[in-house]
Design brief:
This protein is an alpha+beta fold. The protein contains two helices and five strands. Strands 1, 2, 3, 4 and 5 form a five-stranded antiparallel sheet that branches. The longest helix has 6 residues. Bound molecules: zinc ion.
């Protein structure tokens, strides 16, 4: 999976507006320690209720089986 660099540059954490880092199947906000799942390879899910705590994502090796 890879989001286009241009997209990654304009995306921001919905909570703190900080920069996001792509990691496995997630976009990570290091500041909030939150992992937003990326669905179907290229659709970031920024709903806070869908977001995972960073630790949980790390335990899952930054993989999920969520679908749109
Ligand atoms: Zn954040």
């Amino acid at each position: 999976m890879a989001l286009p660099k241009e997209l990654l540059e304009v995306l921001a954490c919905p909570k703190c507006k900080g920069k996001l880092v792509e990691k496995g199947m997630f976009l990570i906000c290091k500041k909030c320690k939150i992992a937003y799942p990326v669905l179907d390879g290229d659709v970031p899910d920024f709903l806070l209720e869908d977001a995972w705590p960073l630790e949980k994502a790390r335990r899952s090796k930054f993989k999920h089986n969520l679908k749109l």
